[in-house]
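explain this.
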Amino acid sequence: MHQQPFLHDLLAAVHAPTQVWSGGDGQVRPVGAQGVFHGDTRVASSAVVRVAGVEPEPVSAGSDGVGAVHVVGLARTVDGPGADPTARLDRFRRVRPGRVDERLVLSCSTAEPVRAVLTLALVADATPMEQVKAGMPAVGVPGAAVAAGAPPRWASGDVTSRVVAAGAAVSGSGTARDPWVLAWELEARTGAPAEVGWALECAEVGAVVDAPSAERLEWSTPRVRADDRRLPALVAQALDDLAGLRLASDGSPDDVFLAAGAPWFFTLFGRDSLWAARMLLPLGTDLAAGTLRTLARRQGVRVDPATAEQPGKILHEVRRSASHHPAEGLALPPVYYGTVDATPLWVTLLHDAWRWGMAAAEVEALLPAAESALAWMADHGDADGDGFLEYVDESGRGLANQGWKDSGDSVQWRDGRLATGPIALCEVQGYAHEAALAGAALLDAFGRPGADRWRAWAASLAERFRAAFWVRSPLGDYPGIALDRDKAVVDTLTSNAGHLIGTGLLTPDEEAAVARRLAGAEMDGGRGLRTMAADSAGYWPLRYHGGAVWPHDTAIVVAGLARAGRSELASSLTAGLLRAAEDLQYRLPELWSGDALTDAPRTVPYPAACRPQAWSAAAGVAVLGAALGLRPDVPGGTLTVEPLRPSPFGAVAVEGLRVAGHALDVAVDAAGAATVRTAAPLAVTVR
């Protein structure tokens, strides 16, 4: 039986579209998800270093910047006498787009020189990513003997690879039974280490996504100081992770977006890339602009049930070729549109980027795509004419659930029964309401017709939602997760309801009711917001969408609570994210267990969680922005700052945020009083 491999204890070095996953000792072995990947292909399944025929014993390993790790191992077979370790091997790995470099440094503190042969055993591979994810064995490549001293070269489908290793003797054929062995004879002396290096270069012909043309980041790198020292650590790690996820699509190398996450989702995902770009707006609008343009180029133009494409629809994901997931019954085409929420989220990102200062000409150029996206909500998103956005997989091979909780069991009744589609998710109605009002504001601002239609559409949606989605409960009313095919409200309390806060769909009293339910112990376990209430039949703390905590999910709710003035719960959820971040070395993974503080002394990892993950990393920036309470309206010439009170971080000062292309510095004291400095020509109001 094949099983998806765990990731939580692996060491990752990521710089899209290349990544290396190894054991905690730095060795790459042909097990699980370990390997060197380029695009959607594993090009090497093993890279094992030995000193004098023995693997070094690891004593330290960790991230060392963007795409870099540093591993320290002790070379005990060439050690001196006594208890003190006197010979060590430092392994410095750095991943850049299309290249993996390793620097191997043998050092010692011995009376006599240390002489040893250092070897690297390398196995070539050609296993597609989907097969690695499914836990299937390595494919390998046909062996080809290498002439003495010649660098190994091989092809893994459309990816070609070669090894560069100055001074190494090379033998073997690159197969699992006969790996390439690169060997160096070293001599290290006290105070005079011996150093060698090797590199693996990869290139893919016809890649649909690749590294951007420029290395310059699309966002600012703010300086953060806070009484709570976990905050600067979280933001610093988040920015490193995000820098390693930058990608561009074929034909538009200057328009940058973020890959959804490593290792499995190293490509363009509409929903994920949109949310990540929206969360990073306090650092600038360039990433949002690149993401919007990239998705607009592939906006749907026809009706195609096989790909779920429809006119105006924003895609779900892009791959080089179709992806097959037999265990899940999925066969997804290379360009797949099976998402119900990316389209309204595209409109809201365009609107928010405009408010943050995206150039008017860039915004105006995208208005036709915005009009098409709005039209999709009314013409296709509402499949049966009941006024709600809904989805159903018509192909029989696509995603059964097409909101952000897209696992097969994510939409279920409180008693554990699965809901039957078509499904209308509660949070998607909030996104649609917000998008309609955002679209109306853009149409008005740029003198285009249709604004009144979308304001009326949003008002009608709010009334229909109020009548259809609320669940009555002795503990307090709340919106159910969805309507099923019979238009019955699916009554599970989930984090989805929290996404409605701040969208304008709910009244202030309704937002207060939702906040009260989310603040309960069944939802807030102390390490972020659970995806499903703990008193539901389907709850399990390690269920992907049925009890685990997703940091981006919590951050979205925190941002909405901050906009709605719900400081207490926003601060509590932020504190939970910081608590988990500290346990997870500040690299926020895709998700973690929903165990309460009383159930586990430390955050329990979800072992198959991806990391880095774009919207998880961006969540660190999102909660910072929410706590600062930044509300820019560049077209209106104003900036409002309304921090959470009291500040969830104690005193905090942030220098180098960006609004309208200008630096924005904000300082908030422990009580929540703020001071602001910016060169932007805006009237600043601090509340």
